[in-house]
Amino acid sequence: MDITFSNKEKLKSKKLIEKLFAEGKSVSVYPLRLMFIKSTFDEDTKIKVGVSVSKRNFKNAVDRNRIKRLLREVYRLNKGLYFNNITTQYAFMILYIGNEKPEFKSLETKMKLLFQQFLNKVSND
């Protein structure tokens, strides 16, 4: 897996997002939650990812957008470590559920724990 976050990897389908929140499973490592569901895509990508930050916790769009940029960057840098050997296609939604503005390093460590928890949960099912 290369270290880019291309358009093919972005979760954009409204139907898939609704299905993800209705039927998906989740793992949490505060301040992050990962919603996921097995899915099939036309593209050759294994994972489609979306990020979300609550408007209730961050009123200013500037703050929400910064956190979303950080989440996407942390995902982009670490996806190769965790998802190279995955065979099933998944749809992900990464939610930031904290109320403080995060630092990049703390977000990166939490994201790694989150991905490890996801892989453990998937391997147990």
Distance between the termini: 24 Å
* E-strand count: 4
Task: Tell me the radius of gyration.
Answer: 14 Å
What is the share of helical residues?
40-55%
- Our estimate of the beta-strand percent is 15-25%
| Overall average pLDDT | 94
Description:
The protein is of the alpha+beta class and 125 residues long. It has one domain: Ribosomal Protein S5, domain 2 (2-Layer Sandwich). Helices cover 43% and strands 21% of the residues. Strands 1-2-4-3 form a 4-stranded mixed beta sheet, sandwiched between helices. Helix 2 links the parallel strand 3 and strand 4. Helix 2 packs across helix 3 (104-124).
Protein topology:
Elements: H1 14-23, E1 25-29, E2 32-38, E3 47-53, H2 61-83, E4 90-96, H3 104-124
Parallel strand pairs: 3-4
Antiparallel strand pairs: 1-2, 2-4
